[in-house]
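Much of what follows relies on a compact textual record of a protein's fold. Here is one such record, which you should read through line by line:
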Amino acid sequence: MEKDDRRIEDLVNKLMKADSLEKAPIDFTDTVMSKIEALSESKAIVYKPLISKYVWWLIASGFVALVGYILFKQPNNTISLSERYNLPEVSLNPLEGLSFDFSSTLMYATVLFAIMVSIQIPLLKQYFNNRLSF
């Protein structure tokens, strides 16, 4: 194994001695930088929004007009909005009729699962960090 490495190293040294180094022209950096500056100046991107301010103002004023029309269309009575427009009553308590009865086996399984996950996540994180460091 070490003999092969030595042969490869000798071969690479011979090739490097036989090859001559190429030298860049004296004004190489200036030429490259001038080309880069020319490209950066010519391709300036101007931000133009998809929806102009005029259209946003038009949408906002239309929305305000629609809300104003709905609110002020009929005279203000003591009737609520849901009664005025025949809207159904909305219940904001979706878990009202539900009851949860868990068996003790399910509770033990859930606790054991949580413990195993809390142990395994740091172990996996350490494993992947060690694997990526090489």
Q: What stands out?
A: The CA atoms of residues 82 and 89 lie 7 Å apart. The chain has a mean pLDDT of 81. The radius of gyration is 37 Å.
